[in-house]
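Per reviewer request, we include the raw input and output of the structure prediction for the construct analysed in the revised manuscript.
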Amino acid sequence: MLEVVALDAWYGRAQILYGVSLAVGAGECVALVGRNGAGKSTTMKAIMGLMAKKRGRIVFRGRDISALPAYRIGRLGLGWVPEDRRIFTDLTVRENLAVARQPPRNGAPEWTPERLYALFPNLGAMPDRPGGRMSGGEQQMLTVARTLMGNPYLVLLDEPSEGVAPLIVEEMARMIAELKKAEIPLLVPPLNLLAKTIDGEFTFYFRSNSPLETNAAIADVRPDHAEIWSPLKSPITAQQTIAQKLGLSQDAVKVHVVQSGGSFGRHLFFDAALEAAEISKTMGKPVKLMWHRTDDFRHGRTHPMATSRVRATYALGNVLTYEQRHTSVSTDFTHGLGEILTAMSAKLPEGNLGFAETIWELTQSVSYNFGVTTQLINEVDLGFHTGSMRNIYSPDSRTAQELIVDQLAKAMGKDPYQFRRAFIKDARSRAVLDKAAQVGNWGRPMPAHTAQGIAFHAEYKGVCAALVEIDCTPATVNRPIEDGVTGPRVTKVVFVVDVGLPINTRGLQAQMLGGIMDGIAQTLTSSLHFKNGIPLEGSWDDYYYTRQWNVPTDVQVIVMPPTSESPGGAGEFGVAASMAAVACAYARATGTMPTSFPINHNGPLGFTPLPLEPPLPQSPTDGLSEAF
């Protein structure tokens, strides 16, 4: 089928290939083995006519193709899946396949979109999705499928598992086996035979940043002064911005910070106060402004959607590298750091990204001795109203990390807790991990479809560990709730926290309880669903934060004795470890690592969306009739 004899190739004056010879017979699957940089990809490029300078003989199906250009080689029925995918990102799946179509060939399997959708169910579920909105693994599948649409006799696959999540690697392996059955010979450079790689690609959907109290403010603006009442987390920035908007001096604007419930970052933005001030100035009268709840959900602030790609390599009982690449819709930091200068700097070109990178560097870490580690972030401004919602990047980042830690433990034949204990960086961190495992009775026998999960997090000069138990049995998952969702239920949580020097132990425990509820919600149920750019959720009735029917009945928060003379932070601390532990428990209970969060996001809506245009229906006056 294919014969390569004494192949030499150069990049400029640098010779890369020296006398490479190989042969692939009909029905064979041949692997090209070598370290990085050995020339595997160059060999494929030379075969495909993509090397400007080469020497040797290449024969395909009895014809010498050594001097043919790449497009003619492709027309002869030699397919190539490049290492870097090269799909058309602005074309849909269906359109990507259509542009690669070639006539059927005698003696070669005939591929149609329908057959490829059966081979790659992921693609069949998204025929109209643009390539640029697909995950790396889905793009890799599309690259292979597009090559097969040319009905080739033989396919060259260059690094087919590069950058692809473990589940999709398995799908690729199944695909390769299917191609083998169809007697298409393959040329597949494998991964390093000594070091093994674990990949994960995770998606975290938008979450609402609406507080329980809707956005509100009172403003009394006069010609020479103004007075504002509103729940504000950045009152100096609000005062300076409102003064600038009204044309007054800063001293002429008095701002009253009104006590309110937790906003988890929402009240860093003072849009209600600014709007009330503008309306009061126009009307010449004091104004009380109150947003409708639905406006708050649909036009307020959200936790930005993000993806997190993780790759870890291991060999001989050690983790050699850990890489994490977090990509997020831009997190709006234009509220600054409490005054107008930093607020204005965040609005400069690349200024907001600079804030994001700084906060990422200050809050994210790899808590384990995993050799060479890198964690990088990039953000893209897509025009969404986002905010620094509770714990900002940590819940998503840590969940991705802890899921990969579990995968490493499994691949290396270790217990998840013992694996963490062996690789954790210091004794203080190991102590909270040990305490959680001890109190939570880690490793106890669990019924089918139930499991324990354990996770660790370090931030704000503190360390914490969470152990959870989850029930994923059909009876629990399918509980009937009118206008609601149920799904799995976390039945037990043991949360151990060390903040250095605890000052208010009861307050600290309460903070952790709130963080646990956040973590459960973000893993299982809490997200926004968009239609034409507008969230369908319009109230807390529609938004599935952790409800009573999903609250664990057994929760223990353990505060460790002082380990430092200074206190650490705790307000956001409980979210990340809780979310990660629930995700790990779900993976163990179901046997499937979740890759999108919350896990029920892609399920059917459990509510009828409120109208997208006013007037909105009145809220029920008798709340008891709506209670569960």
